[in-house]
Design brief:
By secondary structure, the chain is an alpha/beta fold. 38% of the residues lie in helices and 19% in strands. It folds into 2 domains: 9-123 and 309-331, Nucleotidyltransferase, domain 5; 133-304, Nucleotidyltransferase, domain 5, CATH 3.30.420. It has 12 helices and 13 strands. The longest helix has 25 residues, at 237-261. Bound molecules: zinc ion.
Length: 340
């Protein structure tokens, strides 16, 4: 869906590992890229200062290259967060991040309206407008990496929810008696199919089999999901079972999402999904086993199309759609009730 009225935006994406910034032009090209480590152990203010600094550098470089001026700033962030006030409520992977105003400092420092959105919502909007869900009115995005997240488009609009947390598909229950999730819940798909869960299961496997393939590959290093996957590729039956169970859980998640939201497509991205085509094979089979019969013949599970730039490119519609929206006016001015 091309939008001739779209104008360039300054896009920021930050998480537990790095802070990125770039200018995204209306043709979705990404210019003047900047990336620095987040280094969240230095504290909230230091991270906010780095966010402002890299965004400013990117804008200056874009300006000196003759690129169009951005009309606003999109900020893709871990959640949960309040997209209307521009405040991160809690970021489990960033130490000390509770009720942090991010849009305010960015707006004040850069003199541009700034809009904060959960990383997975930026991704679903990006994939919906320009990627694998293009042309649909109902779509779901799932990211499978360290955690599992997602976003939902219903009847041509991103689903936000009462608290801004709608679409947190990683916390859907797929196993009544399953393992505890990082959020405190039980049997959530993130506790079974995320990179964190695979690493946990890998460590348990290695404890019971200290001379196995995984232990050999680890050679004393900490086990992560990539190592479990490599051991599975090398034929380790226990690691293959960990991966298969994860893909089955994702298939069950897809079936539930299909049954509830009736989307035209489910797009699956993230670092694990990108490198594991078998995920799609197993998830499609499992989704068919569990979906309502009426949906059986038209299940579409597609790999994400925009790759790692989705959280930057998705900023284009985020800013252009919200800039005139009174519900997001806090992104353009001092929030009501804030100290002056
Ligand atoms: Zn959970």
């Amino acid at each position: 869906m091309e939008n001739a009225a779209d104008r360039a935006v300054l896009a920021i994406d930050f998480g537990g590992t790095q802070i990125r910034a770039a200018l995204v032009s209306p043709d979705r090209a990404v210019h003047a890229r900047r990336a620095v480590p987040t280094d969240d152990e230095e504290g909230v203010d230091a991270v906010l200062a780095r966010i402002v600094a890299v965004a400013g550098e990117s804008r200056d470089e874009a300006a000196s290259s003759g690129l169009p001026d951005p009309i606003g700033v999109s900020i893709s962030s871990p959640g949960p967060l309040d997209p209307w006030r521009g405040v991160v409520l809690m970021a489990p992977n960033l130490s000390g991040w509770r009720n942090v105003d991010v849009a305010g400092p960015v707006r004040d420092a850069l003199g541009l309206p700034a809009f904060l959105e959960r990383d997975t919502n930026v991704a679903v909007v990006g994939e919906w407008r320009y990627g694998a869900a293009r042309g649909t009115r109902n779509a779901i995005y799932i990211t499978v990496s360290t955690g599992i997240g997602g976003g939902v488009i219903v009847d041509g609009r991103p689903l936000v929810g009462a608290d801004g947390t709608a679409g947190e598909v990683g916390h859907m229950v797929v196993d009544l008696d399953g393992p505890a999730c990082g959020c405190g819940g039980i049997g959530h798909v993130e506790a079974i199919a995320s990179g964190t869960a695979m690493a946990r299961d890998g460590r348990a496997l290695m404890t019971g089999d200290p001379t196995g393939v995984l232990a050999g590959l680890a050679a004393g290093r900490d086990v992560d999901a990539e190592l479990v996957a490599r051991a599975a590729d090398a034929g380790d039956a226990g690691c293959m079972a960990i991966l298969e169970r994860a893909w089955v859980a994702i298939g069950a998640l897809c079936a539930s999402l299909l049954n509830v939201f009736d989307p035209e497509v489910i797009v699956i991205g993230g670092s694990i999904a990108e490198h594991r085509p078998r995920l799609f094979e197993v998830a499609r089979t499992e989704a068919r086993r569990r979906v309502l019969p009426v949906l059986f013949d038209r299940i579409r599970l597609e790999p994400a199309a925009l790759g790692g730039d989705v959280s930057l490119i998705g900023g284009l519609p985020i800013v252009n759609d919200r800039i005139g929206d009174p519900a997001h006016a806090a992104g353009s001015r001092q929030p009501q009730g804030a100290p002056s």
